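Input structure tokens:
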């Protein structure tokens, strides 16, 4: 590879590291070409980039992007799945692929914004529900105590209204 091509690749990787919401590093040893293409198609459907990288170039790009903690993960064959949307999607898809295909693909680690993730943390990330579900749970958690407070405050007023209605009916009937 020429110097100019290497510089362009480093710039592209630096841009990916700087702009993606999450990246998962995988060890693809043992994957056949068919399995690799199948995985790439599944990732492409969700707009997740999956590329095999040269470790030296990836280290330079990680350093330039300010992700020095990643440098140690670039050992052996490495492919990177970079997602730009929901942070859980790449992890979910890769873990699902590993579980369903029984392939030799393994997760080395990754990063989420400025935080480096271990392979175990990537597995945990894969089990999280989507962002919208988490937000709905937070809103529900806030709404529940407020609804209970409103009900408790309204109970005495309902009691007074019931007594007054009963008295009105009593006076009309008698």
């Amino acid at each position: 590879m020429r110097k100019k091509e290497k510089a362009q690749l480093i710039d592209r990787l630096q841009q990916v590291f700087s702009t993606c919401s999450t990246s998962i590093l995988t060890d693809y040893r043992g994957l056949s070409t068919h399995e690799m293409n199948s995985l790439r198609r599944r990732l492409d459907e969700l707009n997740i980039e999956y590329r095999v990288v040269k470790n030296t170039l990836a280290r330079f790009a990680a350093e330039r992007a300010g992700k020095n903690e990643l440098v140690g993960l670039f050992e052996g064959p490495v492919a990177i799945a970079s997602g730009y949307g929901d942070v859980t999607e790449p992890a979910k898809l890769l873990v699902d692929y590993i579980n369903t295909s029984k392939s030799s693909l393994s997760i080395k680690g990754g990063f989420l914004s400025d935080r480096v993730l271990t392979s175990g943390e990537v597995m945990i990330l894969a089990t999280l529900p989507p962002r919208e579900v988490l937000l709905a749970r937070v809103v529900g958690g806030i709404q529940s105590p407020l609804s209970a407070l409103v009900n408790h405050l309204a109970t005495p007023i309902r009691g007074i209204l019931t007594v007054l209605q009963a008295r009105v009916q009593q006076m009309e009937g008698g």
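The chain has two domains: 3-128, 130-174. The first helix runs from residue 3 to 19.
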